[in-house]
């Protein structure tokens, strides 16, 4: 009796150890391999096969045969040349899956209830002798069969093939239950992770879709960041020679890239989509200029009509001179506004002085009130030296990184992605401490944030989906990025690897 209790406790201990090992294993293929290996160990089976139920058929995932020294799937050779098993009741593994029942056969060559032509053909080809067989279904938490474990040729202590003892059915069934739980949990975790990644990509795509000038920016930044991380792994000299971006670190970097602009969801579209200095006020200003032109013409014709028949040649010449000067002034102002509104044109101090003079010109509106040709806000917009945004608009745009951080901090990132909110919100920090939002400098900026900063600038320069500017050639973009390195803004060591390994060429358009 004591021996029986001791044996039962040993079995329970073995099953618990296997369950713990299965739960701790992260690699899906390794879990599958462990199921077969441990089942063979506790039953003394010479061979074993694990099938997964996929699309109304059983697919070979693990094949082990100690006698033939065959170990396929998992960490071994991939399973090839093994066609899927159709879900027909005459196939013993399919029967176990369809009926959710264990099948224990002492000798397959004497069994009549199933079609064993497949194992027999395998025996003829290899010289192996398939005899005893134990087939066990693996059921998930909803009692659905997700896999089938097939064990072949139980052996005794002398290595002789024997039938699988009936009591082993319970042991293997218990192991199969633990294995099914592990597979299900792993599948659920993978599904949740895939759903999370897909959600992130959808959100990032939605942010980019808000503006026609940013259509694929996030995707390209994510690809560039990943490839630059992989390029660092290939570095055999310099400060990155011993640095490694493993898959988890790469995943966190790429996730940060996908989410780096998510805060733009709170940025007004009038700011995000501002392709010219006037932005959505451009049409209003041009319509006003047309209205002013009409007023000037009306004034001219009224004066012309008043002078008819008077025969005052000197007055007529003065009127024509006034009109010529007035119309030339209007044309110059119109051209100046069009020039200044185009962000590709440089705004010099002389241009700013000319624009300020325009604001001194006035017209009479429909209500009889005097109004300037350009409002103060319009003048400020046209005097923007770089880009299209005024100071207040630039502040609104720069706030997106803070919004990004606040939004991402509310998401329950798993431990392996816990730095995503930090890195994603630092892609505008500069090494000289003049970036934003925190004004960090030097080594206080994580390497991942420096990677994002570099590839974000490079993509902005080379992007071809922005109608307000042409795509900059790579050589020119690298030259500008090089100037930013010299100015102490971007990481020179990263740029060197970026250039040496031509990271941009590894990214699809």
UniProtKB/TrEMBL annotation:
Residues 297-509 form the HD-GYP domain. PROSITE patterns: HD_GYP. Transmembrane segments: none annotated. It comes from the Bacteria. Gene3D superfamilies: 3.30.450.40, Hypothetical protein af1432. Pfam families: GAF (PF01590), HD (PF01966), HD_5 (PF13487). PANTHER family: CYCLIC DI-GMP PHOSPHODIESTERASE PA4108 (PTHR43155:SF2), CYCLIC DI-GMP PHOSPHODIESTERASE PA4108-RELATED (PTHR43155). This is HD domain-containing protein. It comes from Heliobacterium mobile (Heliobacillus mobilis).
């Amino acid at each position: 009796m004591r021996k029986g209790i001791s044996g039962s406790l040993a079995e329970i201990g073995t099953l618990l150890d296997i369950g713990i090992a299965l739960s701790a294993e992260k690699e899906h293929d390794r879990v599958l391999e462990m199921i077969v290996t441990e089942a063979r160990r506790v039953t003394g089976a010479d061979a074993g096969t694990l099938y997964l139920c996929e699309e109304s058929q059983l697919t070979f995932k693990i094949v082990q045969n100690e006698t033939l020294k065959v170990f396929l799937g998992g960490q071994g050779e991939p399973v090839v040349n093994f066609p899927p098993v159709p879900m027909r009741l005459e196939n013993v593994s399919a029967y176990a899956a369809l009926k959710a029942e264990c099948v224990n056969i002492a000798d397959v060559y004497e069994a009549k209830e199933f079609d064993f032509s497949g194992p027999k053909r395998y025996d003829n080809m290899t010289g192996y002798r398939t005899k005893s067989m134990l087939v066990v279904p693996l059921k998930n938490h909803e009692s659905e069969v997700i896999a089938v474990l097939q064990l072949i040729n139980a052996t005794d202590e002398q290595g002789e093939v024997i039938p699988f003892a009936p009591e082993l059915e319970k042991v293997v069934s218990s192991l199969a239950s633990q294995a099914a739980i592990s597979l299900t949990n792993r599948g659920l975790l993978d599904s949740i992770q895939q759903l999370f990644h897909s959600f992130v990509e959808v959100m990032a795509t939605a942010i980019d879709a808000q503006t026609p000038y940013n259509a694929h920016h996030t995707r390209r930044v994510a690809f560039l960041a990943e490839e630059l991380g992989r390029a660092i792994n290939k570095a055999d000299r310099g400060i990155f020679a011993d640095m490694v971006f493993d898959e988890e670190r790469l995943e966190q970097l790429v996730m940060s890239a996908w989410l780096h602009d998510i805060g733009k969801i709170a940025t007004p579209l009038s700011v995000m989509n501002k392709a010219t200095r006037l932005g959505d006020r451009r049409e209003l200003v041009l319509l006003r200029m047309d209205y002013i032109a009409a007023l000037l013409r009306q004034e001219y014709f009224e004066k012309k009509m008043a002078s008819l028949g008077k025969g005052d040649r000197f007055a007529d010449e003065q009127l024509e001179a006034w009109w010529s000067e007035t119309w030339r002034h209007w044309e110059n102002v119109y051209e100046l506004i069009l020039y200044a509104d185009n962000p590709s044109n440089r705004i010099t101090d002389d241009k700013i002085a000319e624009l300020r003079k325009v604001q001194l010109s006035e017209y009479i509106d429909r209500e009889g009130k005097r109004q300037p040709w350009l409002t103060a806000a319009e003048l400020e917009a046209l005097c923007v030296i770089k880009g299209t945004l005024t100071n207040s608009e630039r502040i609104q745009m720069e706030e997106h990184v803070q919004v990004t951080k606040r939004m991402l901090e509310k998401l329950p990132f798993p431990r392996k992605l816990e730095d995503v909110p930090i890195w994603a919100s630092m892609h505008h920090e500069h090494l000289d401490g003049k970036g934003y939002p925190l004004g960090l400098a030097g080594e206080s900026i994580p390497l991942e944030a420096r990677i994002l900063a570099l590839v974000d600038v490079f993509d902005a320069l080379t992007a071809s989906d922005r109608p307000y500017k042409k795509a900059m050639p790579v050589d020119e973009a690298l030259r500008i990025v090089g100037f930013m390195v010299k100015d102490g803004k971007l990481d020179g060591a990263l740029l060197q690897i970026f250039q040496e390994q031509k990271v941009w060429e590894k990214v699809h358009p």
